[in-house]
Structure formats: C-alpha cells, structure tokens
Design brief:
This protein has 15 helices and 23 strands. It is an alpha/beta fold. The protein has 2 domains: about 5-250 and about 455-480, Aldehyde Dehydrogenase, Chain A, domain 1 (3-Layer(aba) Sandwich); about 255-435, Aldehyde Dehydrogenase, Chain A, domain 2.
Length: about 500
Amino acid sequence: MSQPIINHYVGGAEFVGESDRLADVFDPALGVATKSVRLATTGDLDAAVAVAKTAFETWSTMSLTKRVAIVFKFRELLEAKKGELAAIITEEHGKVLSDALGEITRGQEVVEFACGLPHLLKGEFSLNASTDVDVYSLKQALGVVGIISPFNFPAMVPMWFFPVAIAAGNTVILKPSEKDPSAAIWMAHLWKEAGLPDGVFNVVHGDKVSVDALLEHPDVESISFVGSTPIAQYVYETGAKHGKRVQALGGAKNHMLVLPDADLDLVADSAVNAGFGSAGERCMAISVVVAVDPIGDDLVAAVKDKMSAIKVGDGRRSCDMGPLVTEVHRDKVASYIDIAEKDGATIVTDGRDVKADGEAAGFWLGPTLIDHVPTSSKVYQEEIFGPVLSVVRVKSYEEGVALINSGAFGNGTAIFTNDGGAARKFVTDIQVGMVGVNVPIPVPMAYFSFGGWKHSLFGDSRAHGEEGFRFFTRQKVVTSRWLDPSHGGLNLGFPQN
C-alpha cells in the first residue's frame, strides 16, 4: 500500500507540478515513514511565483479594511481549530501536544499583531515643507516574497513572517521543511477559509533545488529564513547577490549565567524547562549553564534531581518530552555525548539509556546533563540542537560574561540573580540580541522583534514587530505642489522658502 503524498499548494488548490521526486515524512515516535512529500523542480517554483505575482496585482490594492477583516478571520479560525494543527505538528515533528499548542500560541500572537496593519502601514506628512509644497511618505508592498522555514517550529516560525507579509500587501511562497510539511498545508487551507484570495499564500515543498530557485528567481523580492548558521549565511549571501532583501536568522548556543545569590530551585526548574522543552530542538533553548562558584555542585545536583521527573515518550501519551525529529538527527545529537566523554567531561545523566513510553523504533534520546565541559570541546562550541545540557564552571561574574561574549553566536542568553545591579550590568555588558533576567527563554512578544547578534543573524532585519513591517514594505516619498497662478513664470533656481 502506497503512502499518502503531500503535494504543493498553489493558487488556492493542491498542485502536483512536474516533479516525481519524493521524500519520506516520518512519525518520530513510531520511527516509521507514514507519508511522502513531493519535492519541487525549478519549474514548479516558477509556476508558483507566476501565480503569486498575478495575485499581487489585486491583493496589494485591496483596501486596508478588507485586509484586516481577512487577517482577523484567520486569527479566529486558528484559535478555534488549533488543536487540529497541534496534532499534525506532534505527528510529524514529535514534540508533545502541549508544546505544539504553545508553539501555535506564539505564532498566533504575530497574527494578532498583524491585525493592526492600518496603523502600522501609515506614512508621514509634512504640510508646507516649502511654501505650498507638501512632502509625504507611503509604505508599499514589495511583491512576491519567499519564506524558508525550519523543522523545529513548523507553525510558529512561518507565522513570524507570513501574517506581516500578507497584511502589508505581499503575496507569499512558503518553503517549509520537508521533514514536517503538513502544518504549512493546513495553514494554507485555513487562509482560504478565512477569505484570502487564491494565490496570495502558496506552499512549495522541496530541498536545495527549491531553495535555490527562490533565492535566484527575479520576481521574488525578499527572502525570510530561519535555520542553522551555515545555511543562513548561504541564504543571505545568495539572496543578496540576486538583488533581494534578506532576513536570515541562524543558529545559537544560548548560555544561562547563574550567580551565587540566585534561587537554585528556580534556576534548576528553568534550566530543565529551557534545556529539554521540545527535546532541545529550539534556537532559543538553553544549552549551557554557566555556574559561578561555589554553587556549581549544588546546582548540578538540583538539575539532576529535576530531570529525573521528565517522562519521555510519544507526545500523544501525556509525556513531557518527545522524540527527536529523525533517526539521523538523533544519532548526531547522541554522538556529542561520546565526544564529551572523550574530552574529559562528566556525564551526570545519560539520555542514551532512556526508557521511553513509545514504540521501540522511535527516535528517542533522553535528557542529558554533562558537567565540567571544557570550552575547547565541540560539545561546548557547536550547536547541538537536542536535549543535551552542558555545565561550565567559572569563578566570577566577569569571567562568565567574558565567556559568553567570546562565543560566535549571539541569539539569546539569561542571567539568574537577585542582585538588581548585577542584572542591570549584565543587560548592558552582554553581546547578545535577546536577554532574559530570571527568564530562561527571552523570546520577545510579537510587537517587539526577534533576532540575535553575531553569527545568529545575517543582515540587519529581525522578525515580526515594526521591523517586520519595515522589511515587507518599501518607502516612497512624494513631494507635491498643486498648481496655483502664483507659480507662473520662469525660475531656473531652487524653490525659495
């Protein structure tokens, strides 16, 4: 019996295209492929862009009032049906249902923010900038925009971009991860139900072929990307080379600095939640706890104790943590535990020994705690993207800050302390884009913008918030004077005030 095939969605309907290349889509908790996804050719992408370009002509001129009504309807439908979407995410990604619902909620916040589009698209006006001359600015949509999203948040990350892009009057080509593509298709159908005109929101599946086609297509005006740093750099460089504006969000190695005065029970809870939620497959996960002596031993003991309560298993069985997304990824993450042992670190809790509540073939790896990790180890230096929490000991606040600032990434970080002065100094001193004070995962609200520093962000545009609306619009400035008899006569010079 053949597996169901997930096709593209173009122009308000399923689109098969010309490709016969397929990729397996797994249920990670079962460890078996349950579906296939069709991988686009360059020609398939071209066809989708042509449809989106045609749709832009009418969508971009639709009144703001009508656009708001459609975006708001999408929000209402999403709220009513998000349980369906959560089940899809759990089935293809593996995260537990409660985590999937949380992901959707954070994406929904961006949809709600986009409902304020009339205010956010307002221009400015200067009356009598010169005598009887007015100057005003407009914000106009770009055209067809591309979104390339990762596997770890198949709903939230696309929603960082497409509500803002659509609200601003653009049409969208979304290329979701081929590992969990169904969430994108579900959201496409929801847009149609909300009344979005056909061709405004399109989904094209694929691999590097479709990514490159998006990056190089002359009718695609911008690219929004979230993924690993090497790919983010490639996307940024290639997109910019082809004349596009690009927002490219890369990887992370997020640290939590714990000062001796911190509440260790709160810290332990926060470290466990931020390190092992979504099986550590988060760009904002805490992957390194930096303990300022003398609290290291007590903190490690507290974290180990909290970890013992985590139930690993099928996300549909009321577990706390699910499997990793693929067998290959699970094996790669597990290999870092081997590296840690060779580099002289202490394996406090070994996730390779986990007894999961799920099928034996599932892609299981339990929460792992590694103490005394050398900063020279790949375990410390590289983004692991799994349930592996490292502990590094330092002797002072200053040493901890210097350690964090020396890293290649600058996505998110946190400090845990009851010292307001130290916290305030940390916020100023740290070279990271998003900072938490006694908050382990400092993801900003949708009306702020999301993005890191250093190798965690390429380009200068962050996701959602006002920066998102600036990214998805072009400014036009108009200088205007209406004819009046006093304007007659020759004057070859500049207008005089």
